[in-house]
């Protein structure tokens, strides 16, 4: 009988916790009232299950970035997050736009990025103590001004619609700009050694080049014409070689055409849509590593045979271009490097 009562009591407690979690009853703190899942990311150890490591090649700074899905949890610190709401000039909420917090106060550059919910609200969770600059980017908007903020703050951020399609398109992902590429004439591609069709030529063009870097990015789309691309591609010896089987001249025709149309103000016909549903739960953390000339590849933080190894440990990468191993300590927010012997 006692066992049975204990069982019923346990069930009741679990049911009460569930109702509290689902309805978010009994708590009017900033996190719960922000109506974004009450966020406390699990420790890096637990996160190893559901995160993916990536790196981004940037011409300003190299960043290691980690994307996690925000997970509901029972506990969170009171003062390690910034919350707020994003509205436009009419005072209406802006949903599905990114709120970025960045700082140079830590041992290495640090950024955290989240997405607003239907009501324009956001929570930037688990921020190390520092002064941050906060700003908003979203499809259809002009990038907002940067405002100063610290963990514990609750902010109202206002944004403006982009004045022109050109301004809006400036932040479209590279692939959207790549849709503007026109293949060479069918006859020209059919005469190559590999006898391509326009489709297979385009597929090979993307495959050959994207193995190293994006196409359609600002750097690769903003070269004003064919002769400039010819010089640009010779910057890395391998590029003209890679372009040979596609016919270097045809590659230059295609790129030159893209560069001229972009310079004349043409923008992609296909436009990206804002994040929806669980896409809005993604939390991205970035740490600066390497330097302007870093060419980072093959990041590793654990062993795929046992991904629970080395929780909270460093994330290593190879800086291919400079014979260096580089690494980030995701707890101390520091970046390091060592020369390969
Ligand atoms: C082996 C790696 C690699 C491959 C493959 C590659 N690139 Fe590059 N690409 C680079 C590097 C590295 C740079 C930066 C060079 C620099 O700034 O000194 C670059 C830069 C560029 C630029 C900018 C040039 C400039 O003037 O700043 C363009 C355009 C470009 N690549 C196009 C292409 C195209 C088109 C292909 C396929 C035919 C291609 N790349 C394949 C490594 C590569």
Give a description of the structure.
The termini are far apart. Helix content is 27%, strand content 23%. It is globular. Helix 9 packs across helix 11 (248-263). It is of the alpha+beta class and 341 residues long. It folds into 2 domains: 30-164 and 273-339, Carboxypeptidase-like, regulatory domain (Immunoglobulin-like); 174-263, no CATH class. Residues 3-59 have low confidence and may be disordered. It contains 11 helices and 14 strands. The protein has helices spanning 2-23, 30-33, 44-47, 165-169, 174-178, 186-190, 198-210, 218-221, 226-233, 238-244, 248-263, and strands at residues 52-56, 63-69, 82-87, 98-103, 110-115, 121-124, 132-137, 147-149, 154-158, 282-288, 296-300, 315-319, 324-329, 334-339. Bound molecules: heme C (HEC). Heme C binds at residues 208-209, 211-213, 219-220, 223, 229, 232-233, 235-236, 238-239, 242-243, 251, 255.
List cofactors, ions and other ligands. Answer: heme C
Strand order of the largest sheet: 1-2-10-5-4-7-8
**Largest sheet entry:** 7 strands, antiparallel
- What is the average of the pLDDT values? 83
Q: What would the principal axes of the Cα set say about the shape?
A: globular
Oligomer: single chain
Percent helix range: 25-40%
Question: N-to-C terminal Cα separation, in Å?
Answer: 72 Å
- Proportion of residues in β-strands: 15-25%
CATH-defined fold name of the largest domain: Immunoglobulin-like
Number of helical elements? 11
Task: Count the domains.
Answer: 2
Give the SSE order as H and E letters.
HHHEEEEEEEEEHHHHHHHHEEEEE
Question: For the record, what is the CATH homologous superfamily label of the largest domain?
Answer: Carboxypeptidase-like, regulatory domain
What structural category arises from helix and sheet content?
alpha+beta
Poorly predicted regions: 3-59
Number of strands: 14
């Amino acid at each position: 009988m006692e066992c049975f009562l204990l069982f019923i009591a346990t069930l009741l407690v679990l049911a009460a916790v569930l109702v509290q979690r689902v309805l978010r009853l009994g708590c009017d703190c900033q996190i719960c009232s922000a109506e974004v899942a009450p966020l406390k990311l699990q420790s890096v150890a637990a996160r190893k299950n559901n995160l993916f490591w990536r790196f981004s090649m940037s011409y300003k700074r190299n960043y290691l970035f980690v994307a996690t899905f925000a997970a509901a949890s029972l506990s969170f610190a009171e003062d390690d997050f910034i919350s707020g709401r994003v509205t436009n000039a009419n005072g209406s909420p802006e949903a599905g736009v990114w709120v970025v917090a960045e700082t140079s106060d830590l041992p290495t550059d640090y950024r955290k990025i989240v997405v607003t919910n239907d009501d324009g609200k956001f929570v930037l969770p688990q921020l190390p103590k520092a002064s941050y600059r906060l700003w908003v980017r979203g499809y259809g908007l002009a990038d907002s001004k940067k405002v100063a903020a610290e963990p514990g703050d609750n902010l109202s951020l206002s944004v403006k619609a982009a004045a022109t399609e050109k301004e809006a398109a400036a932040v479209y992902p590279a692939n959207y700009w790549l849709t503007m590429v026109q293949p060479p004439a069918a006859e020209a591609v059919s005469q190559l050694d590999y006898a391509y069709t326009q489709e297979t030529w385009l597929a090979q063009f993307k495959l050959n080049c994207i193995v190293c870097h994006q196409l359609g990015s600002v750097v690769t789309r903003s070269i004003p014409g064919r002769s400039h691309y010819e010089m640009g591609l010779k910057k890395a010896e391998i590029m003209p070689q890679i372009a040979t089987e596609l016919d270097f001249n045809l590659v230059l025709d295609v790129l030159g055409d893209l560069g001229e149309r972009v310079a004349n103000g043409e923008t992609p016909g296909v436009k990206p849509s804002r994040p929806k549903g669980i896409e809005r739960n993604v939390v991205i953390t970035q740490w600066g590593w390497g330097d302007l000339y870093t060419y980072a590849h093959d990041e590793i933080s654990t062993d795929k045979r046992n991904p629970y190894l080395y929780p909270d440990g460093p994330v290593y990468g190879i800086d291919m271009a400079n014979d260096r191993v580089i690494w980030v300590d995701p707890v101390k927010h520091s970046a390091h490097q060592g020369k390969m012997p």
